[in-house]
Design brief:
By secondary structure, the protein is an alpha+beta fold. It contains 16 helices and 16 strands. It has helices spanning about 40-45, 55-65, 165-180, 220-240, 285-295, 300-310, 315-320, 325-335, 340-360, 370-380, 385-395, 405-410, 420-430, 435-440, 445-455, 465-475; strands at about 5-15, 70, 75, 75-80, 90-95, 100-110, 115-125, 130-135, 140-145, 150-155, 190-200, 210-215, 245-250, 255-265, 275, 280. Strand 8 and strand 9 (about 140-145) form a beta hairpin. The protein starts with a strand and ends with a helix. The structure holds adenosine-5'-diphosphate (ADP) and magnesium ion (MG). The site of adenosine-5'-diphosphate (ADP) has 16 residues, from strand 1, strand 10 and strand 11.
Length: about 475
């Protein structure tokens, strides 16, 4: 592939989390029985008129502001005309010549460090319904529950050069959208759908080559794979003196292949015109200002603040700001304990381990941040050992009660009674004569092994620091 450069621009459709449709009051939810959320408006019955949901506008404007776009005070609804069974009106309401917002940017961590992709435009539109191919044998069914649900389409400039960078960019975008709380961003449920436009050109060439558009990809890794394949194909064609045909390609995730869906239509094929049923979308300065105030602290800003305010490393700050819920959780634990370092260690370590094991996330934490803070306090004042603290964490997740109750019920209070500690130490020295002898001969690192044995014998209750001291005295 040397001598060639790929050029990629992305179009992302994001479902806004208003819970209702853009131009009628039907609910917009994923997974309900087919055709149960429909009405004359989204069915396109004659005489039905659209009314705009202001909440969707607010989320769209918030998206645009989070991406540093210029939000236009007037944008125009347009009809995009085409025939398809999942589009009962025969047109999609979208924005064309005058979109909601233009000229933004988004930074991401690419293969050459931090890079920026320019956002060309963001417009609002309604989604189509769904053609369902696997429900009726030999036939295609139509489910119109999705018809009319609110979307923003985010279109980038062709600023990306490598499939891995496309993936990194999309992760950054998803992260930003989640933080902004505008969408649930589920690729599996189709609330975040990315199409990739790609062309190749000889290195040094500044004109763009003919592009193809890859659709139907439902994971970031799928996009990366599809792009690698398509770039190789285009380089092969151009290298062999042939040309690339402008077309839409469908990704088949099972087979890992691309197939041609249709030759690419031009915008004039859609006969766009302003929708006569909808007035221009007019936004006041006050409204845009109010939405600006509602944009939450975004991932980059929060990461920096975590480093400055809590003295965390760049890496830890990155991990702890991975999700908005996780970052808030950490902040709560840090506030209650007054110890950000320990809060970070416990959130990223034992708590994350527990979440992974249970398949939970911090959107719905099995242990409240106040409880984790209490556990950290119990370790700090020597009431329980580290190992016992992990047990308490598990106990809380299993609904056994408060940290103090679990410590009492499970008998986890750390034993610092010298008599009991000495008895365990003696038992272990007797049970592990070889290791004990080697420690006597100076093999320091085996002390840890013996401490571990005592901890096991005490079922985690012995005070490990004191055990360590006692062992060293006995074996010196
Ligand atoms: P179309 O009219 O085919 O929809 P647009 O100009 O609207 O094309 O661009 C759609 C997307 O394709 C944008 O993200 C843009 O950055 C990207 N794009 C446009 N031309 C190219 C090209 N030659 N190579 C790669 N990406 C491109
Ligand atoms: Mg386009």
């Amino acid at each position: 592939m040397s001598g060639w450069e790929a050029v990629v621009g992305i179009e992302v459709h994001v479902q806004l989390r208003t819970g209702r449709k853009l131009f009628c009051a039907d609910r917009a939810v994923f997974g309900d029985a087919p055709n149960t959320h429909v009405c004359p408006v989204c069915l396109g019955l004659p005489g039905a008129l659209p009314t705009l949901d202001p909440d969707a506008v607010e989320l769209a404007v918030r998206t645009a502001l989070a991406l540093d776009c210029t939000v236009h005070r007037t944008s125009i609804w347009a009809r995009k005309n085409y025939f398809y069974p999942d589009l009962p009106k025969g047109y999609q309401i979208t924005q064309f010549e005058r979109p909601l917002a233009t000229a933004g940017t988004l930074a991401y961590e690419g293969s050459d460090g931090t890079a920026e992709v320019r956002i060309r435009r963001i417009h609002m539109e309604e989604d189509a319904g769904k053609s369902v191919h696997d429900r009726l044998p030999g036939a295609t069914a139509v489910d119109l529950n999705r018809a009319g649900t609110p979307l923003v389409e985010i279109v980038t400039e062709p600023d990306l050069r490598r499939p891995a960078d496309v993936r990194a960019f999309l992760s950054a975008l998803k992260h930003l959208l989640e933080y902004s709380d505008v969408s649930d961003c589920s690729m599996e449920e189709g609330s975040l759908r990315a199409d990739a436009n790609v062309s190749v050109r000889p290195v040094g060439e500044t004109e763009l080559g003919t592009k193809t558009e890859i659709k139907n990809v439902n994971s970031f890794s799928g996009i990366e794979k599809a792009l690698e394949l398509e770039i190789e194909r285009q380089v092969g064609l151009l290298g062999g003196g042939e040309t690339v045909v402008s077309e839409t390609l469908l990704w088949d995730d099972h087979r890992g292949t691309l197939r041609s869906m249709r030759s690419k239509e031009e915008s004039h094929d859609y006969r766009y015109f302003p929708d006569p049923d909808l007035p221009p979308l007019a936004l006041s300065d006050a409204f845009v200002e109010r939405v600006r105030q509602s944009v939450p602290e975004l991932p980059g800003a929060r990461r920096t603040r975590f480093q400055v305010e809590y003295g965390l490393s760049e890496y830890d700050a990155g991990v702890l700001t991975q999700t908005r819920a996780g970052a808030s959780y950490f902040e709560r634990v840090a506030a209650v304990t007054g110890d950000a370092k320990q809060a970070g260690n416990w959130v990223m370590g034992p708590l994350q381990g527990l979440l992974n094991a249970r398949g939970d996330t911090l959107d719905d934490p099995p242990v409240a941040p106040e409880s984790l803070a209490e556990i950290i306090g119990l370790v700090r004042d020597g009431t329980i050992s580290d190992g016992a603290a992990r047990q308490v964490l598990g106990g809380i997740a299993d609904g056994e009660g408060s940290p103090a109750e679990i410590v009492a019920a499970r008998g986890l209070r750390q034993v610092r009674d010298e008599g009991a500690l000495e008895a365990w130490v003696d038992e272990v020295i007797e049970a592990c004569p070889d290791e004990a002898a080697r420690v006597r001969e100076g093999e320091e690192r085996l002390v840890g092994f013996l401490v571990g044995q005592v901890m096991r014998r005490s079922r985690g209750k012995a005070d490990p620091r004191r055990v360590n001291e006692l062992l060293r005295v006995r074996l010196s």
